[in-house]
Amino acid sequence: MIEFNEEGVVTKSTGSWYTVALQNGKKLQARLRGNLRLDERDTTNPVAVGDRVIIAENEGDYVISEILPRKNYIVRQSPKHPKARHIIASNIDQAILIATITMPRTSPGFIDRFLLTAEAYHIPVILVFNKNDLITGDHDKHLRDTYFQIYSPIGYKILFTSVKTGENINTLKALLKDKTSLLGGHSGVGKSSLINFIEPSLQLKTQPVSSYTGKGLHTTTFAEMHFLSFGGCIIDTPGIKEFGVSGFLPEEVSHYFIEMLPYLPKCKFNNCLHDNEPDCAVKEAVNQGKIHSQRYSSYLTLLEEVKQARKDWE
Ligand code: GDP
Ligand code: ZN
Fold first, then answer.
1. Is 144:167 a contact under the CB 8 Å cutoff?
2. What phi-psi label fits residue 312: left (phi over 0), alpha (psi between -120 and 50 degrees) or beta?
3. Percent of the chain scored above 70 by pLDDT?
């Protein structure tokens, strides 16, 4: 007998149990109703963090009886099974990539990969470079300027923060307010510290300073949604380093490098991959300094990766 039907949002998933927050703030544990019809057959998880669901109570047990349509979602691809896609989170307003110039240094390739996937899933990105207090030497200052010159003119919001000094934390809070934000980044960049600073009641575990290079320290790969007391929520993705490019077409890659868009119609060949083709407007823009060479270099790397993924897929 069904005693109630209420809408909620999935905040955590641990295999067969889902934590669901109801609209009144109450959290409960629910399973999936056995005969729920599922559309996405190529994904390894039917329900993701961020999903809006209908909860029914059946003899004291809560079940998810319906998954409401997703606005968007972002997937992680299993390295061993390219066709198996794991939905990390859904219904995302924006993605915040936490990066660092130093300790550890986030590579431009990693940033561009993140931007590519976010663009493909139509999720706006804000770049946050944390540990700005550590930027004192000329080399690091130059790197910081370069990042700003690459990403700001092409339309990405970019912010330099510090948990140590509190720099720009209020700006970040204002950007998070009333939105659902996915937070990504390599471990060690201070993602947990930032979250705790913004919302002290969360008390996420942080790493000791000595383990900056301790990759693989976070073993959990479950996303989790946390509500912010000032409005909005964040989806933390511990252990999830990158999002999948499986299923992308090589000719699509340039569409997700947003500064390339104006040049695409000007290439001689309409199936131009902007690699070795003659009369390529993208390459010309790179030569003229209108497209940053570092971005173009990331483009070529990602293009190769997508081509390879395509081969594995077929
Ligand atoms: P996470 O793996 O991204 O969640 O990183 P943590 O939050 O665990 O932080 C990793 C280390 O960086 C910890 O030792 C933090 O104290 C340190 N840390 C975090 N934010 C900052 C910052 O803004 N400046 C400095 N100097 N250290 C920071
Ligand atoms: Zn071209």
1. no
2. alpha
3. 89
Whether 196 lines ligand 1, by a CB cut-off of 6 Å, is no
254 touches ligand 1 (CB under 6 Å): no
Tens of pLDDT, residues 227-283: 999 999 999 987 666 777 777 899 999 999 999 999 999 999 999 999 999 999 999
Cα diameter, the chain: 69
Query: Distance between CA atoms of 20 and 224, rounded to whole angstroms?
Result: 11
Report which protein residue has its CA nearest ligand 1's atom 27: 131
pTM of the full structure: 0.91
CB 189 near ligand 1, within 6 Å: yes
Ligand 2 centre to CA of 201 (Å) is 51
By most ligand atoms within 8 Å of CB, the mutation choice from 162, 194, 206 for ligand 1 is 206
